[in-house]
Specification:
About 75% of the residues lie in helices and about 0% in strands. By secondary structure, the protein is an all-alpha fold. Helix 1 packs parallel to helix 3 and helix 2 runs antiparallel to helix 9.
Length: about 300
């Protein structure tokens, strides 16, 4: 029932924003850059989450195959980013895109009033329980604050004016999202911490036990086990690097928004290009890993 209600809420919100749509050629460079950046960060998150789950699952299977334990348990195959968490993050990016889409509508002066109403409606929805229930709990409160900023900015007549008014709340929002992803160790509750723990507390110890069980005379087996352990460490480090890049991209999105709010589309585009470069790097690494069967 909760998921059904959330879908209905999204449908109503999409209709409200689409009802005051603006033709593509009228989209200004700065607002277009912001929406492009949001799309790039979303794709970066999807790629990073999928890679994390795929490689952790692959390592878990390898570990189980070499384990003397003949009983299968769900806990043997950890999923760092659960399906529910991935869906919640996707919903969060949907909200950011709805905001950028409403900004685009403000480019047309004849539709500014309708677009302002859509921005206000988006803000009000962020304070509603249905929308908040569908996004990551760790950032629900900051989305609510951002919603209040949108309600206060709905009377502004231009996209730049709206962004200027909402920029502090937007910066706080993407900053909290970056913190929820994590950029380094010792960040309890972050996705970074969850992925790191899956490797350090489960997968790597399994490989350590595999090596320990080998006979000292089994040089070839011990060499293979060491190779598998080093590969696993490299896979862990690569995944954590990707999550760190995702966190950096979210912060860059905040910088791009701030530049656009100051009416400096060139500066905004600089930050968006940095996000896109991060995405290209992750996609290239993932594609190469797919060809070799190794970690990204």
């Amino acid at each position: 029932m909760q998921l059904c209600g959330l879908r209905l809420a999204w449908a109503a919100l999409a209709l409200a924003v689409a009802g005051c749509a603006t033709p593509g050629p009228m989209v200004t460079e700065d607002v277009g850059a912001i929406r492009s950046g949001i799309a790039a960060v979303r794709q970066q998150s999807q790629t990073s989450f999928t890679a994390a789950n795929s490689l952790v699952r692959q390592q878990a299977v390898d570990r189980k195959v070499h384990s003397p334990d003949l009983i299968l348990r769900q806990s043997d195959f950890p999923t760092p980013v659960t399906a529910e968490a991935a869906q919640q993050w996707s919903a969060a990016f949907d909200l950011l895109d709805a905001y950028a889409g409403a900004l685009q509508n403000l480019v047309d002066p004849q539709r500014a009033q309708d677009a302002g109403a859509a921005i206000g409606q988006l803000g009000e929805s962020l304070n509603g329980p249905t929308i908040r229930a569908g996004i990551p709990p760790s950032i629900a409160s900051v989305f609510q604050t951002f919603g209040s900023a949108l309600v206060q900015a709905k009377a502004e007549a231009s996209a730049t004016a709206v962004m200027r008014k909402t920029d502090p709340a937007f910066a706080d929002l993407v900053g909290r999202m970056a913190g929820a992803v994590g950029r380094g160790t010792h960040q309890p509750g972050s996705l970074y911490d969850t992925v790191e723990s899956a490797w350090n507390d489960s997968l790597l110890p399994g490989l350590e036990n595999r090596y320990r069980a080998l006979s000292p005379a089994d040089e070839a087996g011990r060499r293979d086990a060491i190779g598998a352990y080093l590969d696993a460490m490299a896979a862990r480090d690569a995944q954590l690097t990707q999550l760190g890049q995702l966190s950096q991209s979210l912060l860059a999105l905040g910088e791009a928004h701030a530049a656009a709010a100051r009416g400096r589309p060139g500066d905004a585009l600089f930050w968006i290009k940095r996000i896109e470069a991060q995405l290209d790097e992750i996609k290239g690494r993932t594609a190469a890993a797919g060809k070799t069967g190794n970690s990204p």
